Amino acid sequence: MYTDDRSTGETPTPETAFDLLTSRRRRLVLSHLLETDGAVPIETLTRWLEERTDEGVDAAVCLHHRDLPRLADAGMLRYRPEERTVRLLEPAAELAPYLEFAGTRGRR
Questions:
Q1: Rounded to 5°, angle at Cα 32 from 10 and 59
Q2: How far apart are the first and last CA of the chain?
Q3: Which CATH number fits domain 14-100: 3.40.1180.10, 1.10.10.10, 3.40.50.1110, 1.10.10.60?
Q4: Domain ranges of the chain
Q5: How far apart are CA 71 and CA 54, in angstroms?
Q6: What is the pTM of this model?
Q7: How high is the pLDDT of residue 55?
């Protein structure tokens, strides 16, 4: 398991925010989860992401091995690979202004 609830409830530092948001895929994931209530099945998130990128199968691999664990380790979401779900945590809401500035927030 990569993480459970590592969220400290603290606002991410600017360094953490910019590091996490360097990836378009992570920006899209965060934007989508900010507009979704509750836990999201990873398959649903993967299909949603594939419709918005040209990554195909690579999107699933990158989500599982890189992006979701990285966001979870930063306390932005709860990622439970064994349950195949992901849920946004409170500190992620602090990234909304950055996502809006990047033009990612609100795109469906």
A1: 105
A2: 30
A3: 1.10.10.10
A4: 14-100
A5: 22
A6: 0.82
A7: 74
